């Protein structure tokens, strides 16, 4: 019903006055003179705008226009239209998966944020460990420069359907013609993939599967086959070992994938159980650096020493030669015999015979450390088969090649043969995640996903079955190799279904697939370990083996080259990864390079030097290295502890194809890697012209007599001497004079202490005995805290940004001023002696990050109070308050503060991951990317501790014991880094803070750090 | 006004000068045209200054990374230059304030320029704390001003903040003191000026000085009060600058001797800079009669004294570093480690220029020689720069942890900015020499009869000076009152 009500605004309107009517028709009460002005042409022409008016208008419009243009860039944040169930913005999801890229094998956990994987941590439940490379592999996922983005044929894009059609047709043609096709892959350690390959070979009987590892451990696998009948690698349970004798086996590095966790578990001084580890080696390896006794012998001598040890242990007399270290060998033989089943001998010589001798010694002493039952399925490469294949291909006997996850053109020593053969093929298909020379030379380039985008399974040892699950939608048009092979075999089952069916049927034994996938692994139960029981004599006579071994070593003349892999780059697969390039080598602390390591004596003889330039950087000379008719020019870095007459060179560098220009560093050593043998004899070295610029993060090599920085005790002293004993104490605190009495420095204080009992108080304990220097924490910190990469030139001039670094110190000939005095050295000589490293030094590692001092020198000097202390013991850094005076860095006795000299993000001068859209996906959204001009440093992962506190709060519970973690402590394989809340008496770190081994670095300064170091204990008193 | 002075004292004003002659001599550079040498010097300085400004813009635009600093050495040339320039400033204040209180008449000929030097040096010094910041556009955050950043306030514990107060106080007091002294002299120029523009400017600058007795009385009182205020600043500014180092925990910096030692060093370097500047200026502006051998000698005596204090401080530092027996003190900037290490050249430069060279001044001949004085003053300027460089770079290059030992090499930007400040300094000084009365003529006139050569000779010859006083003072008054 319509209303008759009338609404009115004024009395006039109510009364219907005519003025309202008039006004309502006329919007502008007053006349607007535009018409009069613009309409009348005459007036317009006569009117003049004065100069002042004109300037006013111009001024106004310019100002208005420029103000309007001053809008900041708009970054749109788009909410989910349909929110995925499992993603809550701001909350990280963790997925368990496994990595197996052919060289690195690990059970890992992956942290994802808003659907992006941003960090990798070890899956500790699966006994998983991570190395620097595993940690950094997250960034390789986002390598838009190198990754293959779509299938191509002869460089032209092609659809997957066409690929399948063409290749299946071709494969069938070749099958009918019975022409051999080779499937060349790296080690995959994947049971389901092995089955798929098997089925593929059934469909195409002309296909042969050959496993090729760029860095070979074929010798050990062949020896296992010969002695124990299976081509796997033995496992070493070093945690139970009493005596470990290693001949160049870098088992804390890449030997059989590394045994650092087991090794360190066998070296806990507080349990009284500490293995005695002797390392014979030529290169200074991580393992040698951590050993109790390091005996420097060049590779050929290692062979004789190994044989002499065999003779000494067994009392037999197989062909060998006397060496300079036979005295040590004798002693060790009796040590080993005493250790019996708890002794073990390892050798890193990639030679079947050498491995057989080592196995034979282990058998002779009845070692239970070497496990030949629960063996390792990694590094399955077969050098003999590969060599045969390359020869056949060169001879044109092979018709087709399907390569997956290998780059023989780069990694084969006879890669020209391979390339030549490749051209003769009728079918060449390369399946690869990244572009490389082999992909480029093949007809079909088929992209496969990164492991973080894949399904799959792994089985690294006999115990743990691992699963691989994708953590992100594939970034590019990739297809898994398993899917591809299934398709080509005519099997239409998706790989996921295939995998699930396979695992459920053969592995899981009735237990839940979902649980296994959630955990990332399924434990298959330990097969019974028993002593070495293989029979060698039944296959080949031990004296024959010894003869072959010693006769080849006797041929050694000239320099001996020991090829090795670096902790950072390994076999070079991740050479385009800036985190790994910038990662300083734990031993040399050089980044962005490989180099010829040379002994100090040889360098003196040949005239090689490493002068320190005025800007603090190290230079080097070039050497021409001739091996087997191949020549390379390499820079020389003098390496203390290198065996005289030997040189070392790292594989995995010098890769150029497809890499960013900044990453094309170092020299490719693979051409020298003849027959996959890491030892090459008859090397000649000539000094050539030129100066090489190294990028080292540490210049001073010794500790210069400042032994309270890094305390080392022998096991005997640790067990028998009181730590604070006035004369011989191995953990003496700093003393000061107070009221003319000597008192412990920490007992006096200028200030009244805050009450630190309230709330949480964080401490980080670093066990120098357990730290092997592997550097996984360094990369973990990189990933967690968005630490920028600065490139070779900036590292060279001392501007690396690592929040966490691992200092490495060599011992000097003279360790203290008192020693120097006893030797009668003059004052200048004393300085020199303290500063100069010994020819064969002991090595110590010290992880160093912000010490979060309770009396922080940095905090008092900041004029704007940008760095302050928290009640939780963390030293905060407010980036947006910082004006960048750098006073804090100057006043930090630990020198852990890092300054943003330039803008490192979105800057073409620093074209690393923070300068492209893909690379930025790895950034941790919880940590701000710092702008130029501000100071930054370790925050003790405040974003992690706060998240833990908030999580507990939300769940209405106190924070659990040992729930607090930092990136470095989670990444630490050996448990050297322990983080926690000292106000929680149950936390592990609380006991560690009070441990008799605990000390603070530079405690005489009384900075009262919240980072505690545990004295390094070395088992040096034996033998 | 005048007082009796023994005839055996050397005269402070040479030649047969009348009051009017003094006026003429002082006004000449301002009223006359500049000579070619001035232009050459000016353009070189200007070029250096512009180059320096270019380097500063490059730094601010790109990042501190264009300097040679690194993770272990966070300061080098920037703070070296800062301390060096602040130190140079000290002589001016000492001459004008302390010597005023001690009634040293010889200061009158040099105080104006010395103070100008102070102010110009403090300008240069003040640049560095700002441009050495990573984010200089936020430099105002170091000022305790109310802000909208919440409850953010400056950190009063930080010696850098003390610097901010010390330097700004120093600059303002020095500027006021200098300007007060300039008032009668500006008025003199104003009164002589013939060009209306010039007259206008000098009228403004002279703040309406009228030359009445009341003006003079107030002038004397204010001068005395300002001298009293400025005197503690002579001590405080460099004391506080030294605390940037002394309150830190770096071995070699953490040293209680720093405040007095820095003050002595500052006066030492300041006098050396005065010698350098006046050595040139007295020649260029024909003021040899006012800045005499005796002035030079007196200043050299101050240099010997303060240089001696500095040398004793060096010896003490060296001894204490050794005496502690601490392995951390082995490499301080005055230690065997420094003398034999990679910075040995810098160490020995310091010893040579700062300890050995000034000892030559014990010889009267050298002390009274203009050319020797000039050479030695340059050496001290260099030596004092090295002192600061050594303190900063050598100490930071050998930190507590040997793993952090590093070295520093300047880039072209470091060098460019330093040269730029020298250029800027000379641009200011040269402009000053052409537009300001470079000698406090009003003050010099007060001692003409007691210390002027002409009058001294007359009194020696037994000629009574009384009538002459009348004549001269009448002349002087007319000078002030008669507008030429």
TrEMBL record, chain A:
Name of the protein this chain belongs to: Quinol:cytochrome C oxidoreductase
Database matches in PANTHER family: GLUTAMATE SYNTHASE [NADPH] SMALL CHAIN (PTHR42783), GLUTAMATE SYNTHASE [NADPH] SMALL CHAIN-RELATED (PTHR42783:SF3)
CDD domains: PsrB (cd10551)
PROSITE patterns tied to this protein: 4FE4S_FER_2
InterPro entries: 4Fe4S_Fe-S-bd, Asp_de-COase-like_dom_sf, TAT_signal_bac_arc, TAT_var_transloc_signal_dom
Domain 4Fe-4S ferredoxin-type span(s) in chain numbering: 762-792, 841-872, 873-902
UniProtKB/TrEMBL annotation, chain B:
Pfam families named in the record: NrfD
Keyword tags: Cell membrane, Membrane, Transmembrane, Transmembrane helix
Recorded topology in the membrane: Multi-pass membrane protein
Compartment annotation: Cell membrane
Membrane-spanning intervals of the chain: 38-62, 82-102, 114-134, 160-182, 222-241, 261-280, 301-323, 343-363, 370-395, 415-433
Family as reported in the entry's similarity comment: Belongs to the NrfD family.
UniProt name for this protein: Hydrogenase
Lineage: Bacteria, Pseudomonadati, Bacteroidota, Flavobacteriia, Flavobacteriales
């Amino acid at each position: 019903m319509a209303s008759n009500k009338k609404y009115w605004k004024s009395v006039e309107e109510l009364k219907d006055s005519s003025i309202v009517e008039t006004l309502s028709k006329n919007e502008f009460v007053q006349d607007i003179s535009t018409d009069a002005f613009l309409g009348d042409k005459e007036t317009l022409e006569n009117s003049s705008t004065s100069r002042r008016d004109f300037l006013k208008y111009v001024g106004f419009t310019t100002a208005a226009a420029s103000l309007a243009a001053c809008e900041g860039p708009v970054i749109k944040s788009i909410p989910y239209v349909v929110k995925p169930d499992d993603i809550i913005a701001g909350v990280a999801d963790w997925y368990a998966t496994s990595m197996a890229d052919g060289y690195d094998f690990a059970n890992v956990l992956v942290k994802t944020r808003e659907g992006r994987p941003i960090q990798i941590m070890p899956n500790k439940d699966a006994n998983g460990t991570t190395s620097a490379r595993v940690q950094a592999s997250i960034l390789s996922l986002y390598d838009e420069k190198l990754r293959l983005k779509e299938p191509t044929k002869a460089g032209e894009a092609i659809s997957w359907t066409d690929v399948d059609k063409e290749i299946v047709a071709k494969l069938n043609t070749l099958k009918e013609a019975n022409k051999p096709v080779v499937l060349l892959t790296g080690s995959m350690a994947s049971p389901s993939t092995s089955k798929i390959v098997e089925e593929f070979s059934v469909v195409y009987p002309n296909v042969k599967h050959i496993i090729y590892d760029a860095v070979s451990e074929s010798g050990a696998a062949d020896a296992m086959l010969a002695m124990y009948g299976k081509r796997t690698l033995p496992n070493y349970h070093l945690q139970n070992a009493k005596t470990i004798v290693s001949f160049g086996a870098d088992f804390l590095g890449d030997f059989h994938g590394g045994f650092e966790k087991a090794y360190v578990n066998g070296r806990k001084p507080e349990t009284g159980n500490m293995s005695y580890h002797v390392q014979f080696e030529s290169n200074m390896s991580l393992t040698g650096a951590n050993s109790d006794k390091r005996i420097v012998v060049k590779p050929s001598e290692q062979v004789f020493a190994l044989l002499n040890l065999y003779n000494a242990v067994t009392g037999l007399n197989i062909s060998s030669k006397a060496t300079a270290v036979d005295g040590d060998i004798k002693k060790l033989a009796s040590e080993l015999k005493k250790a019996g089943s708890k002794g073990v001998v390892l050798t890193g010589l990639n030679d079947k015979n050498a491995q057989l001798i080592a196995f034979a010694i282990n058998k002779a002493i009845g070692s239970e450390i070497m496990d030949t039952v629960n063996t390792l399925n990694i590094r399955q490469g077969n050098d003999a088969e590969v060599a045969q294949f390359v020869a056949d291909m060169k001879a044109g006997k092979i018709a087709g090649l399907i390569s997956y996850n290998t780059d023989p053109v780069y990694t084969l020593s006879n890669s020209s043969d391979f390339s030549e053969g490749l051209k003769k093929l009728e079918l060449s298909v390369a399946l690869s995640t990244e572009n490389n020379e082999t992909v480029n030379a093949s007809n079909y380039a088929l992209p496969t996903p990164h492991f973080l985008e894949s399904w799959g399974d792994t089985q690294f040892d006999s115990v743990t079955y691992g699963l691989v699950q994708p953590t992100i939608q594939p970034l590019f048009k990739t297809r898994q190799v398993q899917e591809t092979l299934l398709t080509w075999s005519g099997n239409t089952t998706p790989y996921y279904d295939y995998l699930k069916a396979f695992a459920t049927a053969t592995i899981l034994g009735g237990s839940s697939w979902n649980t296994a996938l959630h955990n990332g692994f399924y434990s298959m139960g330990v097969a019974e370990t028993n002593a070495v029981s293989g029979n060698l004599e039944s296959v080949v006579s031990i004296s024959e083996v010894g003869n072959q071994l010693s006769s080849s070593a006797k041929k050694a003349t000239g320099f001996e080259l020991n090829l090795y892999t670096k902790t950072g780059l390994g076999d070079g697969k991740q050479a385009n990864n800036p985190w790994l390039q910038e990662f300083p080598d734990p031993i040399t602390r050089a980044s962005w390079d490989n180099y010829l390591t040379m002994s100090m004596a040889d360098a003196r003889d040949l005239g090689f030097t490493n002068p320190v330039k005025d800007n603090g950087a190290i230079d080097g000379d070039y050497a021409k290295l001739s091996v087997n008719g191949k020549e390379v020019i390499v820079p020389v870095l003098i390496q203390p502890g290198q065996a005289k007459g030997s040189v070392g060179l790292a594989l995995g560098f010098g890769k150029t194809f497809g890499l960013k220009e900044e990453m094309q560093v170092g020299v490719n050593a693979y051409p020298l890697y003849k027959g996959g043998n890491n030892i090459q004899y008859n090397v000649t070295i000539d000094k050539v012209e030129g100066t090489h610029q190294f990028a080292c993060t540490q210049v001073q090599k010794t500790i210069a007599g400042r032994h309270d920085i890094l305390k080392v005790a022998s096991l005997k002293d640790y067990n028998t001497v009181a730590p604070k004993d006035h004369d011989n104490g191995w953990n003496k605190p700093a003393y000061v004079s107070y009221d003319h009495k000597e008192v412990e420095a920490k007992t006096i204080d200028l200030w009244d202490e805050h009450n630190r009992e309230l709330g949480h108080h964080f401490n980080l304990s670093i066990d120098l005995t357990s730290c092997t220097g592997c550097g996984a924490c360094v990369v973990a910190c990189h990933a967690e805290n968005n630490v920028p990469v600065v490139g070779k030139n900036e590292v060279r001039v001392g501007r690396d940004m690592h929040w966490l670094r691992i200092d490495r110190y060599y011992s000097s000939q003279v360790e203290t001023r008192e020693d120097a005095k006893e030797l009668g050295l003059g004052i200048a000589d004393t300085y020199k002696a303290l500063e100069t490293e010994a020819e064969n030094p002991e090595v110590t590692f010290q992880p160093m990050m912000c010490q979060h001092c309770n009396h922080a020198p940095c905090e008092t000097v900041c004029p704007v109070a940008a760095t302050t202390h928290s009640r939780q013991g963390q030293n905060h850094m407010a980036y947006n308050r910082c004006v960048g005076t750098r006073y804090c860095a100057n006043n930090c006795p630990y020198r852990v503060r890092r300054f943003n000299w330039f803008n490192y993000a979105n800057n073409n001068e620093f074209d690393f991951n923070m300068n492209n859209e893909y690379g930025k996906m790895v950034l941790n959204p919880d940590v701000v990317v710092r702008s130029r001009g501000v100071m930054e440093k370790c925050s003790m992962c405040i974003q992690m501790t706060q998240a833990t506190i908030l999580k507990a709060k939300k769940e209405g519970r106190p924070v659990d014991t040992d729930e607090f973690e930092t990136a470095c402590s989670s990444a630490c394989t050996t448990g050297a880094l322990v983080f926690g809340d000292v106000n929680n008496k149950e936390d592990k770190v609380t006991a560690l803070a009070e441990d008799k081994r605990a000390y603070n670095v530079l405690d005489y300064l009384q900075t009262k750090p919240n980072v505690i170091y545990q004295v390094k204990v070395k088992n040096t008193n034996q033998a | 006004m005048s007082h009796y002075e023994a005839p055996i004292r050397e005269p402070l004003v040479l030649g047969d000068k009348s009051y009017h002659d003094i006026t003429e001599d002082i006004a000449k550079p301002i009223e006359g045209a500049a000579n070619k040498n001035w232009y050459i010097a000016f353009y070189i300085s200007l070029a250096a200054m512009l180059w320096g400004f270019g380097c500063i813009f490059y730094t601010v635009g790109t990042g501190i990374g264009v300097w040679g600093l690194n993770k272990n050495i966070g300061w080098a040339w920037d703070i070296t230059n800062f301390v060096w320039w602040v130190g140079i400033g000290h002589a001016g204040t000492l001459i004008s304030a302390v010597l005023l209180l001690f009634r040293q008449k010889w200061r009158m000929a040099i105080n104006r320029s010395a103070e100008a030097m102070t102010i110009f040096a403090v300008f240069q010094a003040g640049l560095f704390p700002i441009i050495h910041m990573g984010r200089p556009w936020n430099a105002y955050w170091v000022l305790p001003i109310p802000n909208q950043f919440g409850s953010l306030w400056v950190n009063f514990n930080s010696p850098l903040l003390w610097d901010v107060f010390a330097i700004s106080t120093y600059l303002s007091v020095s500027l006021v003191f200098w300007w007060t002294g300039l008032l009668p002299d500006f008025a003199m120029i104003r009164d002589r000026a013939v060009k209306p523009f010039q007259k206008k400017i000098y009228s403004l600058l002279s703040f309406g000085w009228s030359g009445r007795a009341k003006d003079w009385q107030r002038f004397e009182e204010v001068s005395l009060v300002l001298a009293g205020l400025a005197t503690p600043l002579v001590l405080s500014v460099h004391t506080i600058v030294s605390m940037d180092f002394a309150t830190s925990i770096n071995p070699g910096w953490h040293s209680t001797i720093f405040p007095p030692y820095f003050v002595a060093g500052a006066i030492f370097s300041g006098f050396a800079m005065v010698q350098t500047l006046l050595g040139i200026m007295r020649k260029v502006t024909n003021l040899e009669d006012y800045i005499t051998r005796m002035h030079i000698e007196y200043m050299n005596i101050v240099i010997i004294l303060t240089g001696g204090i500095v040398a004793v401080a060096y010896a003490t530092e060296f001894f204490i570093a050794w005496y502690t027996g601490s392995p951390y003190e082995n490499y301080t900037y005055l230690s065997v480690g420094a003398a034999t290490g990679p910075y040995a050249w810098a160490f020995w430069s310091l010893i040579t220029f700062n300890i050995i060279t000034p000892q030559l001044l014990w010889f009267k001949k050298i002390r009274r020689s203009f050319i020797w004085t000039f050479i030695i003053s340059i050496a001290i300027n260099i030596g004092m720069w090295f002192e600061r460089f050594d303190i900063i770079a050598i100490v930071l290059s050998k930190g507590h942890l040997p793993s952090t030992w590093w070295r520093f090499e300047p880039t072209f930007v470091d060098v460019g900015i330093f040269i730029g400040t020298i250029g800027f300094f000379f641009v200011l000084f040269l402009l000053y020499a052409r537009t300001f009365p470079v000698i406090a003529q009003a003050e010099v006139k007060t001692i003409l009869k007691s210390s002027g050569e002409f009058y001294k000779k007359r009194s020696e010859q037994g000629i009574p000076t009384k009538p002459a006083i009348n004549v001269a003072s009448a002349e002087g008054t007319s000078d002030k009152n008669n507008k030429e």
